[in-house]
């Protein structure tokens, strides 16, 4: 018995030592990542205003809420911001004016959504686009708490008659300055939060688009082109890719998509909401929305959900007059 107890004590001690050692490695990597990723400097450019001013009819009002990704930190020109790209694409697709207000705050946690929503509702928005979650992961906000703040925001907006599209938590495991094993944990935490956000948002009446590893292999293949100078936030081209992924869902949420009976591609279709959320977290650019099966919202495993991998509107670069630099645009939106 004493030998067993001694062996158990040795084993427990070894496990504890391993945990402490691993924790030390993670803390060291976290400190290194903070030193490598620069602090936010100048604020991102404002993008508020009316887009498509020459088009007839009253403008549609869109608000952008969330964190630095929603605010488009990392770009230097108004036309490069996520809000401007979405408003321009929406105006061209719907052939109407779009009035844009951005309330997103650099560094915001999900807990910071409430004042943003309150400000947004003063403008009676038709559609809200929310990008949130990355800072909750880096600050280790409990996922349940972060999701609760997001759900409160979605429900408040929906109660006011505003449609809501949420770009779920990006995969922080794709960030270059974060090294393994911290990268593996960051990826796991990001996907867990993204899946939880998807379930909660769809239950609350919103739509989600998984941003995953910042929209896929292109970021991994061309990190110097897709990421901004700080290697943490997207570049102008990175935001254009994000806008291309979000725009089809924004149009659908507004009920403006002229779709025939959909021909579903591989991996698409109706799932239980929890299953759809897990699949979306693994596949960037996946849209999840509530649906019905035989007139029912719910099945044995919970709410039914439609999972779609939308075709992105093309993203290209068009030289600007008087400038040698390329500027991102959304093609196929005219």
From TrEMBL:
Source taxon at top rank: Bacteria
GO molecular function: phosphatidylcholine lysophospholipase activity
Region named Disordered: 281-301, 315-334
Polar residues composition-biased segments: 320-334
Pfam families: Lipase_GDSL_2
Domain SGNH hydrolase-type esterase residue range list: 64-241
Coiled coil: none
InterPro entries: Ester_Hydrolysis_Enzymes, SGNH_hydro, SGNH_hydro_sf
PANTHER family linked to this entry: SGNH HYDROLASE-TYPE ESTERASE DOMAIN-CONTAINING PROTEIN, THIOESTERASE 1/PROTEASE 1/LYSOPHOSPHOLIPASE L1
Name of the featured protein: Lysophospholipase L1
Organism, scientific name: Micromonospora coxensis
Lineage: Bacteria, Bacillati, Actinomycetota, Actinomycetes, Micromonosporales
């Amino acid at each position: 018995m004493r030998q067993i107890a001694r062996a158990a004590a040795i084993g427990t001690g070894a496990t504890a030592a391993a945990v402490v050692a691993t924790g030390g490695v993670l803390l060291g990597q976290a400190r290194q990542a903070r030193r490598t990723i620069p602090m936010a400097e100048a604020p991102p450019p404002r993008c508020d205003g009316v887009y498509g001013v020459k088009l007839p009819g009253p403008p549609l009002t869109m608000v952008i809420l969330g964190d630095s990704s929603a605010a488009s930190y990392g770009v230097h020109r108004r036309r490069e911001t996520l809000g401007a790209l979405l408003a321009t694409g929406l105006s061209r697709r719907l052939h109407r004016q779009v009035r844009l207000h951005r309330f997103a705050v650099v560094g915001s946690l999900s807990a910071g959504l409430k004042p943003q929503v309150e400000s947004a509702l003063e403008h009676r928005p038709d559609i809200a686009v929310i990008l949130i979650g990355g800072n909750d992961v880096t600050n280790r906000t409990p996922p349940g708490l972060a999701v609760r703040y997001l759900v409160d925001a979605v429900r408040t907006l929906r109660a006011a008659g505003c449609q809501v599209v949420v770009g779920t938590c990006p995969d922080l495991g794709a960030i270059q300055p974060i090294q393994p094993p911290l990268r593996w944990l960051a990826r796991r935490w990001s996907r867990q939060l993204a899946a939880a956000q998807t379930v909660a948002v769809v239950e609350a009446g919103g739509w989600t688009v998984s941003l995953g590893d910042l929209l896929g292999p292109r970021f991994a293949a061309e990190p110097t082109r897709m990421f901004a100078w700080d290697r943490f936030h997207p570049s102008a081209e990175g935001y254009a890719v994000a806008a291309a992924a979000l725009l089809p869902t924004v149009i659908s949420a507004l009920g403006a998509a002229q779709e025939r009976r959909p021909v579903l591609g591989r991996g698409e279709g109706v799932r239980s909401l929890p299953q759809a959320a897990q699949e979306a977290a693994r596949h960037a650019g996946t849209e999840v929305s509530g649906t019905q099966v035989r007139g029912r919202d719910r099945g044995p495993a919970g709410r039914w959900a439609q999972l779609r991998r939308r075709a992105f509107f093309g993203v290209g670069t068009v030289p600007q007059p008087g400038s040698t630099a390329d500027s991102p645009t959304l093609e196929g939106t005219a």
